Amino acid sequence: MIETASNPLDILKRTDQRQAFSLEVHRIRINLEHLLDRYRTELEVVLRSEGEYTGPVVDPDPQEADAIRSAVDIYIHVCAFQRGERPSPVPRRESTPPKLP
Fold this sequence. Notes:
Elements (H helix, E strand, L loop, with lengths): L7 H31 L1 H9 L13 H21 L19
Helix pairs in contact: 1-3
């Protein structure tokens, strides 16, 4: 989208969006890595069991849970963008994350 923009304000807006998206992806990655590190031993047992053992119920901390929600939101919005249902592929982040049920 940046490459097709000719208006300097559009270029600036798209550049800011790309930077915000990169930061969001980085935040998601860091939190998911943290979650996987916390459950590494249990996950290795599940992987070695070839489906015989289902493993523990994962209990993400608030930041990990928010990262999971953000990843799902991005996926949903990108799919909608690909279907032509959204003008932008990335959802806007709320200033305060919603509470988990």
